[in-house]
Amino acid sequence: MKIKVLGCYGGELPGFNVSGYLLDGKFLIDAGTIGTKINITEQRKIKNILISHPHLDHIGSLPFFGVNIVSNKSEAVKIIGTHFTIDTISKNLMNGHIWPDFTKIKNAAGNNVFEYFKIEHNKWYDIDGYKIMAVKVNHSIPADGFIIGKNNNYFVYTGDTKETMEIWEKAKELGKKLKTVIIEVAFPDELRQLAENSYHLVPATLVSEIGKLGDLKPKIFVIHMKPEYLTIIKKQLKKIKKYKIYLMQEGKIFKIT
Ligand SMILES: [Zn+2]
Ligand SMILES: [Zn+2]
Fold first, then answer.
1. Cα separation, 242 vs 221, whole angstroms
2. Do the Cβ atoms of 202 and 193 come closer than 8 Å?
3. 121 CA to middle of ligand 2, Å?
4. Which of 120, 170, 131, 180 is nearest to 27 (CA)?
5. Residue 229 — pLDDT band, cuts 50, 70, 90?
6. What is the C-alpha separation between 63 and 122, in angstroms, rounded?
7. Distance 71 CA to ligand 2 centre (A)
8. How many structural domains compose the chain?
9. Pairwise CA distance, residues 85 & 59, whole Å
10. How many Å lie between the centroid of ligand 1 and the Cα of residue 10?
């Protein structure tokens, strides 16, 4: 599996975009950033979009992406998420007021532009060759992390969360098949209280979260940093020697093997 990072920050500034991870060129994880980072040919290849939770930095590019792919001669693009996520998007974002409802608008092949696909927690789904499980995490609104795998290589994507348990228990069951953890850290250690109040992690709580995997030592990629605290977060992460920790970078492509 190959992931291209369209945006990996917890805020927007020039050169810093919000969450969007393109898996193998066709499967998008979170939709904060799409159209400003990949051209129309690349956008047309996206078949499925998995959404962790309906905060705007994870869904904000869907409306503009919908406009771009009206001329698609293909099946509907699936927007996948748990019930709360899908209902919130359809009621509050593409609701016919703020933006057209693209599940009712036809593309050039006569199929709907978007189609919603609701998934249940803690259940494996086979979607376009990927095994996918949504697990509840601990955020200010109902939010999910995902465990995603192909050919016995799996990764965890936490989405937005503060301290949580269930996703680590599920991930632990994978044993050595768990290759990578993509985990959020929004603030530096000094702002731990703010992180707690807004349901996010800091470097110190990242260490305790990863510790819940016991002996497993997957590669760790850190995401969702608030751009203004990037330098200090980087310094604090460098001091952690127990795990291989990488800071995610926009525009980068990395492999999960
Ligand atoms: Zn959030
Ligand atoms: Zn977020």
1. 14
2. no
3. 20
4. 131
5. very high
6. 29
7. 30
8. 1
9. 10
10. 9
Range of the domain at 49: 2-255
**Ligand nearest to the Cα of 139, by number:** 1
Q: Which residues contact 79 (CB under 8 A, 6 or more apart)?
A: 49, 51, 62, 86, 89, 114, 115, 116, 117
Instruction: Calculate the CA dihedral of residues 156, 243, 237, 21 and round it to 10 degrees.
Output: -20
CATH of the domain at 7: 3.60.15.10
How far away, in angstroms, is 101 Cα from ligand 2 center? 23
In the block, which residue shows the tokens 């604090």?
Answer: 236
C-alpha of residue 107 to centroid of ligand 1, in Å: 31
* Residue range 55-111, pLDDT digits in tens: 999 999 999 999 999 999 999 999 999 999 999 999 999 999 999 999 999 999 999
Compute, in angstroms, the gap from residue 55 CA to the centroid of ligand 1: 5
CA–centroid distance, residue 57 to ligand 2 (Å): 5
